[in-house]
Amino acid sequence: MAPLPNAELVQNSLQLYRYLLRCCRQLPEENIRQHYRHAIRQSFKVHADEDNPERIQQIIKRAIEDADWVMNK
């Protein structure tokens, strides 16, 4: 399963959050979608106070890589 296009356009945390939730919609089973939606929301809350732009870009890059892995699994 291919990831959504335009991952390279994700520039901030809100765009990442929306991108990842859209990726979840493509997962085949409802219980899997619920699991990853919950994980995305939890990660968003954990990193909500992050203010270092360099660290935010690292998180965005890693989250997109992880989403690609999940979508191709």
From TrEMBL:
Complex 1 LYR protein domain location, by residue? 14-68
User: Which InterPro entries does the entry link to?
Assistant: Complex1_LYR_dom, Complex1_LYR_LYRM9, Complex_I_LYR
* Family annotation (PANTHER family): LYR MOTIF-CONTAINING PROTEIN 9
Q: Identify its protein family.
A: Belongs to the complex I LYR family. LYRM9 subfamily.
Q: What is this protein called?
A: LYR motif-containing protein 9
Q: Which organism is it from?
A: Arenaria interpres
